[in-house]
Amino acid sequence: MSDVAAPAPVSLAAPSAWRRATRSGGLALGLVLVVVLILVAALAKWVAPYDPDAQDVMMVLEGPASAHWFGTDAFGRDVLSRVIWGARISLFVGFVATLAGVVFGTVVGVISGYYGGKIDKAITAATDVLLSFPQLIMGLMLVAVLGPSLRNLILAIAITAIPAFIRVARGSTLAMKERDFVDACRALGYGDLRIMFLHILPNIMDEVVVMASLWLATAIRTESTLAFIGLGVPPPTATWGGIVREGFDNLLDGWWLSVFPSLAILLVMIALNLIGDGLRDATDPRAPQ
Amino acid sequence: MTFALDTAAPNAEAPPANALTVEGLTTSIRIAGRWFDAVRDVSFTVGPRETLALVGESGCGKSLTALSIMGLLPAAVGRVSAGRIVVDGVDMTAADEPAREAMRGDRIGMIFQEPMTSLNPVLPIGFQIAESLIQHRGLSKRDARKRVVELMELVRIPAAEERLDAYPHQFSGGMRQRVMIAMALACSPRVLIADEPTTALDVTIQAQVLALLADLQKQVGLAVLLITHNLGVVASVADRVMVMYGGDVVESAPMRSFFKAPTHPYSEALLNAMPRVDRATALAPIPGQVPTLPDMPAGCRFQSRCPLRVDKCAERPPLVPMASDPAHAVRCWVRAGA
């Protein structure tokens, strides 16, 4: 009798999308970072060491120390607490604006791609016009017209996101509607609405989600940029871009004023891009294994 | 345990003798801005429990005939320019789109050539079968689910209950075609159009699926229009055969008399091009190829490839019953007299 060990069972199944996505660790790391940030923002009331708006004339422009990890600003406000509270606005604006842009853009894109013809031509032309403006200029114009407020900011950023999602959804729908299962749906007597949103939409969601995760980063960056140039949520509400801007006036006296909120923005950008890249690798069959 | 589908005819007062009647169907398609007749004056009927095979090579108009019946021609490039299509007593050509939509999947079902791609990859099988019941019969999700298990057992998918929530990629080609059949039959239609239902399957699976279709047909009283280019499939399941060439029906006959005495030169050539175990002679391919629609000759469309061509072929021959067998009709000047 030979005592050669039985060969270990070989898995012939392709690694799952989740395994492929998390193999490099980027997606997992990004998700952890974003979840932590969201938790910190949501629990700001308990996490933040100070009231973000409380001024302390005895502690003006103090550098980072054990009492104030990120230092204090020109009014003696705790920068760490302001960054934590600012995360609420920045993340909220980013998520809501992206969600609105995704929903509206995807619906319009699917309709455009599915029906084709004149509807498609009109929508595509409008999309091209919107896309010809740089995204930031577009947001700037909209906020300038609508006036700076939380609602208008969300609206403006959502509108800048819409054309990108129209384009992605339209393109995927064009490819999807030629598939056999769409003909099968028609042969079963399903209406256009059912085919578009119950059959085609779930098939294009992977691309939309990847795009959304990358757009989330863009939306948060836009919000920060608009706040930085003074078109964000009006002060004294803490937002990341606003804190960077306030710190600018005293940058020579206190580097920490702008550096810490900038690092917070950077951290979110990195986390969201890790997620976006990870999702794309997981859903793109052409991605290197 | 056998399960019987709901066989009651929806309009019990005057059940039409034929489940599907097509009269003088002419379908045009647009090529480079001009309309050409790709299906010319096609007429046939299919009764309950009957299988009519529509045979011909690619581009002969058999799939266009199916799409015309279903009302699924893409409007920009195809239209029914003449004729009448009556499904279960409802004139599809006169009906508007919502009415046709209500017929499709309910009174008339269709299965396709490619089971691998005809199912939605991101929706569970059980839901996809249930969907037409929810859409056409207004069943609740729970009732539909019960019916789906019955349907899956009917098409002999093992372990139906456990597979309700499985996705198409977890099924083999043969199993997927069974799912397609279950979807098409969910609402107990009277007519089933099967467009090359076994072409994409392995030969052994082909036989299983054909046997399944034949069984279901007997149980449910389904009228089947089978579209195929495989004469072997025709011989095993069809009751009647219609051969199409270039959009014309060139021969129409009961299955046995067709195989015993193929009459149109094209039918003859088709059978000679089919490998057979009882014949040692080399296969005889049909010379030349089907002319494209803009290049179709006037008169008989097969004349450019026909060994029996005579001058009269420049005129379009009528489809006439043969003297020896009135059920057997042929569209050929040379052979019609025989």
TrEMBL record, chain A:
UniProt topology in membrane: Multi-pass membrane protein
The keyword Cell membrane is assigned to this record: yes
The organism's place on the tree of life at top rank: Bacteria
PROSITE patterns associated with the record: ABC_TM1
Keyword Transmembrane helix: yes
Principal localisation: membrane
Alphabetical keyword list: Cell membrane, Membrane, Transmembrane, Transmembrane helix, Transport
GO CC terms of this entry: plasma membrane
Transmembrane segments: 27-48, 89-117, 129-147, 153-169, 196-217, 255-276
Ranges where the ABC transmembrane type-1 domain occurs: 87-276
GO biological process, one term: transmembrane transport
Family: Belongs to the binding-protein-dependent transport system permease family.
Protein name in the entry: Peptide ABC transporter permease
TrEMBL record, chain B:
Domain ABC transporter: 20-271
The entry's keywords: ATP-binding, Cell membrane, Membrane, Nucleotide-binding, Transport
The keyword Nucleotide-binding is annotated on this UniProt entry: yes
InterPro entries from the UniProt entry: AAA+_ATPase, ABC_Ni/Peptide_Import, ABC_transporter-like_ATP-bd, ABC_transporter-like_CS, Oligopep_ABC_C, P-loop_NTPase
GO terms of biological process kind: peptide transport; transmembrane transport
Cellular-component GO terms for this entry: plasma membrane
Cell compartments where the protein resides: Cell inner membrane
Record has Transport as a keyword: yes
Main location (coarse class): membrane
Short name of one Pfam family: ABC_tran
GO MF annotation, one: ATP binding
SUPFAM superfamilies the UniProt entry points to: P-loop containing nucleoside triphosphate hydrolases
Membrane topology value: Peripheral membrane protein
NCBIfam families documented for this protein: oligo_HPY
Family to which the UniProt record says this protein belongs: Belongs to the ABC transporter superfamily.
PANTHER family in the record: DIPEPTIDE TRANSPORT ATP-BINDING PROTEIN DPPD, OLIGOPEPTIDE TRANSPORT ATP-BINDING PROTEIN APPD
Name this polypeptide is given: ABC transporter ATP-binding protein
